Amino acid sequence: MIDPQDIRDQARSLLESGEVRLVLGYRDSTAGPMAAPAFVSRPEDADDLTWDPTCVHNLALYLVDECKKQAAAGEGGDRRPVALVAKGCDSRGIVVLLQEKYFSRDDVRILGVSCERTGVIDQRKLAQRLDGRTADATAFTGADIFRITTDDGDIEIPAREILADRCLECRAPSPAVNDILFGEAVERTYDESFHALEAAERAFGDAPWTFWRHQFDRCLRCYACRSVCPMCYCEECVVDSIVFNVSPDTSAEEKANRIKWIERSAVTSENAGYHLVRALHLAGRCIDCGECERVCPVNIPLRLLNSKLEKEAYEAFGYRPGTDADLPSLVASFRDDDPNDFIR
Length: 344
Hints:
Layout: H1 4-17, E1 22-27, E2 36-40, H2 60-73, E3 82-86, H3 88-99, E4 108-113, H4 123-130, E5 135-140, E6 145-150, E7 153-158, H5 159-162, H6 165-168, E8 180-182, H7 195-204, H8 208-218, H9 224-228, H10 252-257, H11 268-281, H12 291-295, H13 302-317
Parallel strand pairs: 1-3, 3-4, 4-8
Antiparallel strand pairs: 1-2, 5-6, 6-7
Helix pairs in contact: 8-11, 11-13
């Protein structure tokens, strides 16, 4: 089991030595039982860092944000690396970003944390299981059991009942890349890869569109899924314009010639276009961190969409994203022994 003090000590050492300018990690939240992202830039604040099964956020997102800030600061900015506490899924995100040359390996110090024989908790599952009680603390007992401290005392819940779906199928609970590893690198899987997807496809039968039409109809187009995804780093998204701002001086011809692929109105057809285009843009890049589904305010099962394309990439090309930064990305790779079974 990982002792959070070890992470604090390492973070403090990196900051005191000046090796890094910032440590991205987790701290206890004041807004509920789940840990919150922590941005530690002073050695004395390293004591705020924590590690437990409530550390759900994919911190690779904030690494992307820091890179954007650094680029905006120009040559006068602090060019020292950023240290990041990274779970297995977080590290896969870092690997994809390295493959895409978003930053270099020298720009980040990875404090890898192995999820060992556990994972992170799904807050919705936990709330349902507690039935109105408030969780004050969470611990893994090491026997596939979570011990939850509530206002009514301690209760024990089987891990399978409250683990995030992605953790139930996780193929790599230890970071694929790290500078220092906390915890034991182990293999642990409750379910086979794509278990949830295959179960859903059996339930869909011959009418998958009926299911997805209902899901897309509920979408609010809040873009929380896009905002939380470390792979969605485009300066301009296909669904909105950043570089083309309409002003009173914008001519009708300029407006007419500006291609608009997807309207922003929250209607079923446009919602479907948004989610399907986003899923295709993540093909071979999604690292199954489940953040898009976690933050969705209406609980659309977005992970199923991304898992479908991940499965297609694996079955057609034997490709799994986020495993090796030295390998090319899916769309940039070619092998003579590709199965080619999909070619008719």
